[in-house]
């Protein structure tokens, strides 16, 4: 179990005019279809969570892990603003090609694990987060590098919109747990997972390219659609022992704090109970 330690209104933590404008836009925007309003709300939630996390956790002279996905974009933008406004000095370690490009586009200092093997903080999105702050990650296919970076940070902070805040994994996220596999092993690994744990492990196919999706590490991904929830620590450990599995998208006892942004512009901040 984890507890809500704080709920804040994002207006109080936003300092840039641009960010304030965006949140204001979302709060007064009430025309158009329900879907459009929902999308605005989701975007506002992601942004609020990202900005609050960067404000609360990043200090000058730190080495910061930069996650992948869409929510992290707002975090990187906020870092860039703080560099300009406050002279913040940070070295950013990417978790994917996307993160690397984001760092470079926002003119932040790019680091690498070979030079900076120890990080102060890593910030990243997630596909779903349960009551213990166990996360499913890898919807964007980057979980291996994300886990390496997060595991070497003193603090791993998750940012998400409030749809991803669930009691039990698999409540809203129906795409399964992404598992990165060595290409020649994908079939035996698929058979093993289905036999031992049940459910279906589906080879993720590429979009706008024929054949399987190839990760930044040159591997494939099996999306394991599990049919019952269980002891995630045990399942993750057992999965990691199957030859051919490189990494799973199960992040167990890694996230220390999660920031959930709501469409109303508030952010729920939860600390892991195991801390
Ligand atoms: O794990 C990830 C990529 O591998 C992402 O962090 C996760 O998919 C969440 O993405 P988004 O912020 O776009 O919802």
TrEMBL record:
One of its GO terms (molecular function) is ribose-5-phosphate isomerase activity. Signal peptide: none annotated. Keywords: Isomerase. CDD domains: RPI_A. The keyword Isomerase applies. It comes from the Eukaryota. Its EC number is 5.3.1.6. It catalyses: aldehydo-D-ribose 5-phosphate = D-ribulose 5-phosphate. Pathway: Carbohydrate degradation; pentose phosphate pathway; D-ribose 5-phosphate from D-ribulose 5-phosphate (non-oxidative stage): step 1/1. It is an enzyme of class 5 (isomerase). One of its GO terms (cellular component) is cytoplasm. GO terms for biological process: D-ribose metabolic process; pentose-phosphate shunt, non-oxidative branch. InterPro entries: NagB/RpiA_transferase-like (IPR037171), Ribose5P_isomerase_typA_subgr (IPR020672), Ribose5P_isomerase_type_A (IPR004788). Belongs to the ribose 5-phosphate isomerase family. This is ribose-5-phosphate isomerase.
């Amino acid at each position: 179990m984890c507890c809500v330690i704080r709920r804040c209104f994002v207006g109080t933590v936003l300092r840039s005019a641009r960010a304030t404008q965006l949140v204001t836009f979302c709060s007064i925007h009430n025309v158009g279809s329900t879907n459009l309003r929902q999308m605005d709300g989701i975007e506002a939630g992601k942004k609020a969570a990202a900005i609050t996390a960067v404000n609360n956790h990043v200090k000058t002279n730190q080495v910061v892990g930069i996650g992948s996905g869409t929510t992290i974009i707002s975090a990187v933008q906020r870092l860039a603003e703080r560099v300009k406004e406050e002279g913040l000095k940070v070295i950013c370690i990417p978790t994917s090609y996307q993160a690397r490009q984001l760092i470079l586009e926002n003119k932040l200092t790019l680091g690498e694990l070979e030079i900076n093997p120890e990080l102060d903080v890593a910030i990243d999105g997630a596909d779903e987060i349960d009551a213990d702050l166990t996360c499913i990650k890898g919807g964007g296919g980057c979980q291996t590098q994300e886990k390496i970076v997060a595991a070497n940070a003193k603090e791993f902070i998750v940012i998400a919109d409030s749809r991803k805040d669930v009691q039990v994994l698999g409540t809203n996220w129906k795409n399964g747990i992404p598992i990165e596999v060595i290409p020649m092993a994908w079939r035996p690994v698929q058979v093993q997972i289905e036999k031992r744990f049940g459910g279906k492990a589906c080879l993720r196919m590429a979009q706008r390219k024929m054949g399987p999706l190839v990760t930044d590490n040159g591997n494939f991904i099996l999306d394991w659609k599990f049919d019952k929830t269980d002891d995630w620590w045990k399942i993750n450990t057992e999965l990691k022992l199957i030859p051919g599995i490189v990494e799973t998208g199960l992040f167990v006892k890694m996230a220390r704090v999660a920031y959930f942004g709501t469409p109303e512009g508030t952010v729920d901040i939860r600390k892991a109970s195991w801390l």
